[in-house]
Amino acid sequence: MTVRFYSSGDASAPALRGNTPGDLINLLTKCLVDGYGAKSGAGWTKPYAGTNLAVFRTGAGSNGMCLRIDDTSVDASNRAARALGFESMTDVNTGTGRFPLNDQESGGLMWFTHYSGSPSNARQWFLIADEGFMVLMIQTFPEQLASSSQYYRETYWFGDLVPIGPADAYATVIQGKPAGSSGNTSESHPLDSVGLNTSSSGLYIARTYTGLGGSLRAGKAHDSAKSGTTAWGGNGNLPYPHGPDGALLMSPVWVHEPGSTSMAAIRGTLPGIWAPLQYVLQAGDTFAGQGDLTGRSFFAWRQYENRMCVETTDTWR
After folding, report:
1. In this predicted model, what pLDDT tens digit does every residue of 110-163 receive, in sequence order?
2. CA 241 to chain centre
3. Could you tell me the superkingdom of the organism this chain comes from (predicted)?
4. Furthest C-alpha separation in the chain
5. How many angstroms separate the CA atoms of 54 and 49, rounded?
């Protein structure tokens, strides 16, 4: 699969305004399907669409599940689209294997495009994707990446994990804000690390590893023990550079089915996403991997005190 990097700073990039229904769908269409300027799409398809509604299906080599976006909101502030996963869909409103279910998140997860500031101004955004997974990062206010603006960012993703098992047809996840949330309340997102008996807020997987049942809450975890007293990515006690070896230390991010004693299951890792274990990176930083990560390039993102790094090379899977 081919990893592609898109940003609002690209020539001919689609605008994402804070108050405009359909802008998020246009952004996803350009990045995931059609491409724009000199950039190709990520290999997804858009089988169904309506007025400010759209269904996006992951591409070749993936589980082929669907992301449904409802971008009809006309809210003047704290505006959000609604996001849902489906195992399959037959039109823009009809599908099977919904995740999350309505009794888990009424109306679907919230993908915010606006928190504050001038709603008609275009927001800064970044999207990194391959044929099977995408992660979207949005600056909801202010409109540019200022040094103090980590408090106004959102992070969302959809797609297939890198599975632990040789074949896992249901290891497809969606991340968003819980229904009824407000923007700018993601202090522990995107990489809060929780125990195996606990789920992470706004994270769902299509089915259990057995293939039985349906949507369930999932948890995510990284090697937070090495970062000190906190479970947030990139907000720990280790210095940079790390004294003994001069390294920037990073951990994969594992996704699990929560369970009590002897009942939990690790499903896989988030493709291309790493949790840095030192308090150093800022949004927009880029760097090359070394040691075991030689040949990989990374883009850093900061949301509140939480940090994550995303590979921008074809090294996700």
Report:
1. 999 988 788 889 999 999 999 999 999 998 887 776 666 788 889 999 999 999
2. 28
3. Bacteria
4. 57
5. 4
Most confident of 54-68, 148-162, 266-280: 54-68
Check pLDDT > 60 for residue 186: no
Closest CA to 22 of 54, 45, 47: 54
pTM above 0.90, yes or no: yes
The Cα–Cα gap between 271 and 252 comes to 9
Range of the domain at 68: 4-224+253-274
Whether 302 is covered by a domain: the verdict is no
The mean pLDDT value for 244-272 works out to 94
In a domain, 203, yes or no: yes
Distance of alpha carbon 154 from alpha carbon 141, whole angstroms: 10
Q: Cβ neighbours of residue 88 under 8 Å, at least 6 residues apart? A: 64, 65, 66, 95, 96, 97
Residue at 291 is within a domain: no
**Inside any domain, residue 49:** yes
Return the closest-CA partner of residue 71 out of 128, 136, 6.
136
d(CA 310, CA 147) in angstroms, rounded, equals 20
Hey, what are 111's tokens? 């993908």
Burial class (CB in 10 A: 0-12, 13-18, 19+), 142: middle
Q: How many domains does the chain have?
A: 1
